Amino acid sequence: MGQKEIHQEIESARTSDGWDLRVFHYLPEGNDVIRFPVILCHGLAANKNSCDFGEPGTMEWERYSLAAFLSQQRSVSEPVFDVWVPELRGGGQPSFDPRVNPERYRWCVDDYIDKDIPAIVRCVQQWYQEKKHEVPPVFWVGKSMGGMIAYAYGQTKEGQKNLKGVVTIGAPVVFGKSSIFLEFITRITPRNISIPIRIMEIVEKSSELASHFKRLGLNLENIDPMILQTYMHLGLSGILSSKVLSQFSLFFKHTGFCRYPQYPWMYDVFGRIPGFKKMFAPYSYTENLYRFSAPLLVIAGGQDKMAPKTDMLYVKNHVGSTDVTYLEFSKEAGYRTDYGHLDLNLGLYAREDVYPKIYEWLQAHGKEM
After folding, report:
1. Helices 242-254 & 179-187, crossing angle to 10 degrees?
2. CATH code of the domain made up of 8-366
């Protein structure tokens, strides 16, 4: 299988607590390049293969990688994007050995928001400062949790300043219809301790969990079985703090996206009692979604069981953005099939259905000054 030469750099984004995050940078081909950089961020327990599947230059990469679709010129009349693909802490090559530095593996979702996103954005903007003598805002394209943390970052002053626009792919902030995923999460989440875990190893050891993951994670009719097998082996190979899963359990139990509570067990017990909730409830990203004001493209799958379209519509109707576009990829909406969760970016028809819509939205918003 032949490969063509791809111009790629690997940068390092240093977080405030000492993690060195890998950021893959695809230098765009051609002279017509959209001015604003595009950051593609993976989701929970994943890595770069979520938005950048395959080895650069291969047929699989050309076919399935969103990074390839956005950064590689298809015709002289179509501009391309400067694409950056980060890996959140634990998602790629570990900065630390969990056996030597176990304390490093006690992070939660808040650390992605407070430390990883600022480091990634700073890395991109510093490159622009050095190479082009400007510091532009960025586009953030987030798959699943990668979109959730963009909603949270966009509620901060820093996020409001740095985000040119956001595209979320199956990224909820409410979880009323997702109880089936709660069962999956709670079955693999240790209690009372925070330890490094590998989702891939857990799933591979249990055929029941693997089948469960596939049933709720995608439309099996809309994915090449070999691509799915490869993704589950490579795309879920990182190390994850169990505290992240504990926080997700809280999201599902309380049907909202919030910071990790100071007293999680008290929040568990009293969080649903009106008189006590305010005493123990942490900051809610769901309730403060009106603070998110960046232009937004919300992408939903018609058969997405991890992020049902009703939850995606909640985002559309509650963000503070004045520029919001909602796209549902389903037969009812005129597309080839009803998309699940993973197949929104790894599906048989994602390159024909989903990727062009992302490209068109970014192109339209990239022309704005």
Report:
1. 150
2. 3.40.50.1820
